[in-house]
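General statements about sequence and structure are easier to judge against a single worked case. Part of our work consisted of pairing the sequence of a single chain with a tokenised description of its backbone. The amino acid sequence and the backbone structure tokens for this protein are reproduced below.

***
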Amino acid sequence: MPLTSPAGRAQDREILRLAVPAFGALVAEPLFLLTDYAIVGRLGTTSLGALGVAGAALTTLVNLCVFLAYGTTASVARQIGAGNTRRALGQGIDGLWLALAIGVAIIVVAWPLAPEIVAVFGASADLAGQAVTYLRISLIGTPALLVVLAGTGVLRGMQDTVTPLVVSIGSFALNAVLNAWFVLGLDLGIAGSAWGTVLAQALGAAVYLVVVVRGARRHGAPLRPDLAGIRAAGTAGVALLIRTLCLRVVLVIATVVATRMGDAQIAAHAIAMQIWTLLAFALDAIAIAGQAITGRALGAGDVAATRAATRRMVLWGVGSGAVLGAAVLACGPLLPGLFDAEPVVAAQLLAVLWPVTLFQPVAGVVFVLDGVLIGAGDRRYLAWAGVWTTLAYLPAALLVVALGGGLVALWLALGVWMAARLVTLGARAYGTAWLVTGA
């Protein structure tokens, strides 16, 4: 298909319609924690460190539960494509009930274990006390946070990425105001920061509930818990949970290896990972469009449209990755200064930016295909692919340790992992087993 054909331009508009607002929402989410850092930083180093420890624990919980958004997007989009709006909203309601149940379970399990969770990070006594306070208060907001994830999945599945963007921006603004008031105005310390974030998350969850419930009532979808539907949503989420765990294992191992190299190396690695994460948000926005478009097309039984959209989104992934990589190189000399990096850290960072840049086109394809296969409901394959690609990464990481390689070698090992993901996802997308049509 020519790049300038009318069909191609129509596909581009559809991809951008979904991807651009999705990118805005993705960027807004981590701003919750960044706002907390900016405000809590005024309380001193101990409070800031406590926020870092508690924030790391909370981020892990959120990452493990991202299947609530991804799985719901795929299932709802497939029903929309099949013309079953009532059933789509019914599955969305099931996802919301599942989110509430998991959120309550997390509170029950993690609340009494908060001191032990913080102790894993090896925090000092003063820091640990504040971290436990922040973590326990934040856990109260877990059900609301997971409802936001599930609600986002429902709306994305219904081809609406604008509402999640609006909710994210509103929640971020409220979070900033409440944190400033509670911490700096009412002098509530780190507890005030946690309560501000919990209230902002609760309001965001309330908006999603109102929007989804209104849609369900309009189309006659049941609001009561459907145990079979909730169980089906949970079962489908297991495979995506395994996929996410595999991703986290690779990133944690990379951090452990970098830490053993020295302070300068782990500092540079941490900055490089923040840059990588920011770039991933841009590429993941296309993947989210892939989830919604693929689910809808397959639900409508249109394999040809699914293939065409996949090819188009792969082109967008490669192009976006190349542009982002070029931007990293162009901004490279300025990046150490943005993080106030010492000369030895700056040298390590500038060296590692080369592999970060080179991997971006590959990452663009990997993220797109990951989103397409999630949208197709090909979760079991994604779980197995996650296991195999993690096993492919481990020898490369061990080789770096055995040979005493530096930070660049470690990132090249991550390149082996990305290449393995490209092969496994590309081979699957090239075949036909994932092209299951209908609701």
User: Anything to note?
Assistant: Residues 237-439 form one domain. The chain has two domains: 25-225, 237-439. The chain is about 85% helix and 0% strand.
